[in-house]
Design a protein that fits this description.
single chain, 234 residues, alpha+beta, six-stranded antiparallel β-sheet, flat, TraC-like domain-containing protein, TraC-like_dom
């Protein structure tokens, strides 16, 4: 007698129901928007500039009446291809002085790689909607790191389009407020697009395979199972 056919994909175990119109819709029915921000090199600022930044940031915190999450994500970069590109440029240089400078730069980069890890840092702000957003951090379905590694919340039937329509009225003023307050401290921010969100979450689960790979979002390609379940027969 053949064993029952189990249709299951990785998405069944994630907290995300769908990513659409630049919004992340969760299986709890709530919606979140993700802002990507720039950073400020605080150590290079003068003491007066540092005091101004601290004052502006404190004003930002005091002005926020809703929960949000700040995420700093560090990734180790593989710059082997960059070194190879520098090598190719060096080989094409005919001027002796320029060739020597190119060689010195290549050796400098290679030495830096040997002594230190080259990290790429990205900064995000997650703004949730819904009453559940007020829960304690770590118990909220918007916990950007822990909750994304396994859905453990209450799953309900979610009408994605209706959830987004409801969330837009709530989230748009919040986005506008956070953006303006960040501008006061010299930090630019923007809402991440659907394609960027798909690639971001894909990268979280597949950190070694994202390099150079584009995940298509048309016709819900990112929902298609990569590995089909096997059918076992006795």
């Amino acid at each position: 007698m053949p064993a029952p056919f189990i249709q299951s994909t990785t998405q069944d175990h994630l907290d995300i129901e769908d990513i659409k119109d630049n919004f992340v819709v969760l299986k709890s029915g709530d919606v979140a928007v993700v802002l990507q921000t720039t950073a400020v090199n605080f150590d290079l600022l003068s003491e007066i500039e540092q005091d101004a930044i601290i004052s502006a940031f404190s004003m930002l915190l005091n002005s926020i009446s809703f929960p949000l999450q700040i995420v700093i994500r560090s990734k180790k970069l593989d710059i082997t291809k960059y070194v190879e590109k520098v090598q190719r440029v060096e080989n094409k240089v005919t001027d002796p002085l320029l060739k020597k400078q190119a060689e010195a730069y290549r050796k400098f980069v290679q030495e830096v790689i040997k002594r230190n890890e080259v990290l790429d840092k990205k900064f995000y702000i997650v703004i949730p909607s819904g009453d559940t957003a007020g829960k304690e951090l770590g118990k909220s379905p918007f916990d950007f790191i822990t909750k994304l590694f396994g859905f453990s919340g209450k799953r309900i039937h979610v009408n994605v389009n209706q959830a987004i329509q409801r969330a837009q009225r709530e989230l748009l003023p919040k986005i506008d407020h956070v953006t303006k307050e960040l501008n006061r401290i010299g930090v630019r921010s923007r809402v991440m697009a659907t394609q960027e969100l798909v690639e971001l979450y894909f990268d979280i689960y597949n950190p070694s395979s994202i390099h150079g790979q584009r995940i298509r979002t048309n016709v819900a390609d990112y929902k298609t199972a990569i590995v089909e379940p096997a059918i076992l027969e006795e």
